[in-house]
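Sequence only, no structure available. Ideas?
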Amino acid sequence: MKYIVLKTGGRECPVLFPSDFSHRYLADLFAPAPVVAAGFVHEGPDGISCGGESAGLRIGSRGGVDVALIRGALGEE
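Reply:
I predicted one. Tokens follow.
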């Protein structure tokens, strides 16, 4: 699964989406909101992790910062 993090209304909001879509495509749907992070979400025995980067956007994951945002959006924190 892929994700982007948008800066909107003074806060950061994660958007998760299938790997079939490009980071650029999703970012364009939310324009003009700036993308502050992008990458891949993986689920493992210890929960989710974020990593990698979007080549098309030239923006990478922020690891634990993005994990915390996603977990908060899912109501896990």
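Residues 2-73 form one domain.
Hope that gets you unstuck.
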